[in-house]
Amino acid sequence: MAAYFRFTDTNGQSRFVIELKDDAKIAHARRILSGEEKQKVHVLGRIIKRAVPYNPGWSYHLDPNTIDFFEMAIEVCDSSAQYLEEHLDEACGAFLPGCMWCPWSSRLVDEVKPG
Questions:
Q1: Phi, psi torsion values for 101, nearest 5 degrees
Q2: DSSP label at 65?
Q3: Total-model pTM
Q4: How many structural domains is the chain composed of?
């Protein structure tokens, strides 16, 4: 059963929804929200340049099969959600190689119900 989580980044305004299908990752996300998990709290995954219904307002989403959580990551995959939206045509080349996105300032805000 899939679960959906919303995260924010740099300024706390943008809200981006991810879909998690793996039970261990869903449990990890819930531990982040409860405050139990304090290390691997940032979101990373491979972007797919296509909108999905559960993530309104964005022209891309994260592939649920590639989503994970991290403590520290390399700079080459860091970007705000808004910057990525504005430069989506450049993503997956020199900007965000391999379509991997790891917004350093990402933090889960809440779990959301689909629909």
A1: -125, 125
A2: G
A3: 0.92
A4: 1
